[in-house]
Amino acid sequence: MMQEFKDFIAKGNVMDMAVGIIIGAAFTAIVKSMVGDLINPFVGLFMGGVDFTNLYVVLAGEVAEGASLEAAREAGAAVFAWGAFVMAVINFLIIAFVVFMLVRYVKKVKEAAEKQEEAAAEEAPAGPSELDVLLEIRDSLKK
Questions:
Q1: Which sequence spans correspond to the domains of the chain?
Q2: pTM score > 0.90 for this model?
Q3: Per-residue confidence of the chain (143 residues) as pLDDT tens digits?
Q4: Please, which residues have CB within 8 angstroms of residue 73's CB and are 6 or more apart in sequence?
């Protein structure tokens, strides 16, 4: 059983997946920082400085007028935090677009590298094909 487990772990697919998850977790921090620290301020600027995060409706309980969402939750009020949801959707769309652009760029780089490899392979002198060699052997045997 241990040998089977070692064989399973040593397979390339499992190792590739593990590396992908680790890189993905590190990349998530970078993308979140980019969205939160670089892109969201511009979105807020274009929307007149409106931050949807603290917009909510009190369903039950007492909350001071103009209190933040966090203060309303700490007060024990039941709140419908629609602003936080809207910001989550906006952040998701921004993150999805950034990831799309990165994947698109990586795809273009891979395609360019493949084209260079194909061009190099075409430039290399082509030797005789298998059919040519077999025909030459046949002709030699006939003599």
A1: 1-48
A2: no
A3: 888 877 777 776 777 787 788 888 888 888 788 877 887 777 777 777 666 777 777 778 777 777 777 788 888 788 888 888 888 888 788 878 878 888 899 899 999 988 888 877 776 666 778 888 888 898 888 87
A4: 79
